[in-house]
Amino acid sequence: MPQVTALEPPSRPAAPPRLLPRRSERRWVRPLLVLIAMIVLADALIGDQSLSSGIRARREYESLGVAVQTLRGQNERLRDEVRRLREDPGTIEYVARKDLGLAEPGEILVVVK
Description:
mainly alpha
C-alpha cells in the first residue's frame, strides 16, 4: 500500500515576537503615572494623615506630656499639703492664725492696715 503524505501549505516566515507595545499604545502610561504620583504627593503633604498633620500631632503630644508632668508635680505637692493639714499640728496652727485670724488665749491680736 502506498503511503499518502499530506501536502503542507508553504510556511511563512515567523514574525518576531512583540516585546514592547508600540509607542502610540503606551503614550498615556507616563502621564498617568505622573498624575498618580502628584496625587499621592499632595495627599502626603496636605491630607488628613499628612506629614504636616503628623508633625503637628507630635508637637502637641510632646507639649501635653510636659503639661502632664507639671500637673503630676502639682498634684504631689497638693497631696503633701493635704497630709500636713490633716496630721501636722504646726501646719494646722499656722493656717488657723493666718487664714482665720485665730489666736491662743492670752495673746493680743494686732491688725495693721
